[in-house]
Amino acid sequence: MIFNETKNKKGYYVHSVICLAIMAGFGTLPLIEPLTPLGMKIIGIFLGMVYGWLTVGLHWPSIAGLIMLGMTDYSNMNGVFKEAFGNNTILLLMFVYILAGVLDKAGLTRYICLRIVSIKWAKGKPWVLTFLVLMMNYVCSALLPPSASLLICWYILYGICEVCGYKPGEKWPMLMVVGVMFSGNIAGQMFPYKALAITVCGQYEAVMNSSINYFGYTMWMLVTSFVSVVVYYLVCRYVFRPDVSKLVHADVKLDETLSSYQKFVFVVFIGYVLCMLLPGIMPAEWAITVFFNKLGNTAVAAIVVCILLFMNFKQGRSLNEMMFDGVRWEVLFLIASALTIAGAFRNPDTGIENFFVQYAQPLMEGKTGIAFIIVAVLVVSMITQFCNNAATGTIFTPIILMIMMSIGDVGVDTRVIMLMLVQACAVATLFPSGGATAALLHGNRQWIPKTTDLYICAVLMLLINFFSLFVIGIPLSKVLPL
């Protein structure tokens, strides 16, 4: 039989049949109002994709889900694939994968790793180095697009693991892969010019007819997000207790010098970072700001890749090599399908948004004081695991604010609720549909091979975020101008 010629076990085919059966069959079940028949089909496709991702792999369940979606009334096949692979996030990540691959193959990530590992006040101190690794993406994501900075910081982390002798699947690298993603997610909304922050703050100002003190916003985000990183660090050190001896005994040699090719790639990379960073901090009316805003992050990344290919250095690698060695296509398939299905959730013809609102709103009504805040944050935190975080913020921020106004004084400033909703939406890690970084995390099966480890860490991130929001965030709001 032809099946005997594959590397798949019998259980693989059983799970595959179940995956497809859920995608095709869930929509035929009795209607759950206010879901429409289209909504039932889309939820079935999503559940089938999740089952497939957990049991058989990332690639074909993602593609199969898109095909199934194209067979519904949501859109036609061309429309679905255009939405999936014409998505700006997918294009950005593809170019960043190529850029990160160039950095890696040029030896620059190794060089950066050697510099990090050999920092005087961190050398021989594994937990100091661990904290530096966690803070790496914290700083980058506060300034740059979180998904792009995550990929680059992961490449640097992989280099540190290689230098120190860690292999995929070991506890310290696994915790750092998760921690780097977590630190970036919670720092990603530190400044109010990021997409999620703009969405939620805009909803707040529209509903409450009140402005926000953005200095207070930034300080609140800075403190609560930093505390979250510290708590994650302490849990890793004193609860999980990974083996860090390899960080102590790493054989680090600093006699490497950069070639002209490496120097050029490094300068181009710094230029790329500046081109993404400066438009967010320069005055909006400046011509250069207008120019880069018109280009967008994806075009900037594409230009950088073009420059590297145009120079065609002898030490460089061909585009074909970089496309197949550097780009993780199965992860891009996962992200494309997850973001597309999350977008389909927002279609009013599905009834999915109404479904969430119908069952979530009664949970919040009738609550007062801290009980209302806890339920509101929990509801948003759970729903954003399935839906895009900006979409969740758009839907639920006005609902929560209007319920608060109907209740009266709940003991906490409405601005604090707004801040808490931003951070609640930012930590979406349970399912790939939560956002691009969540999909990247779920797609990183090389360094997190056990699904149980992934979900344990996902729940841990949620709990740490709740701790920071309630134990630190509420008291802090009383001393900051918001």
What does this structure look like?
The chain is 72% helix and 0% strand. The relative contact order is 0.13. It is an all-alpha fold. The protein has 22 helices and no strands. It is globular and about 65 Å long.
Mind sketching the topology for me?
Elements (H helix, E strand, L loop, with lengths): L9 H16 L11 H19 L3 H12 L6 H9 L2 H18 L2 H10 L8 H18 L2 H19 L6 H17 L7 H14 L5 H27 L4 H4 L11 H18 L9 H25 L7 H7 L3 H17 L6 H13 L4 H15 L5 H19 L6 H13 L9 H8 L7 H27 L5
Nutshell version of this structure?
This protein is mainly α. It has helices at 10-25, 37-55, 59-70, 77-85, 88-105, 108-117, 126-143, 146-164, 171-187, 195-208, 214-240, 245-248, 260-277, 287-311, 319-325, 329-345, 352-364, 369-383, 389-407, 414-426, 436-443, 451-477.
Helix % is over 70%
The residue-averaged pLDDT reads: 83
Note the main sheet: none
Q: Output the helix-strand order.
A: HHHHHHHHHHHHHHHHHHHHHH
Spell out the key features of this protein:
mainly alpha; 482 residues; 22 helices; single chain
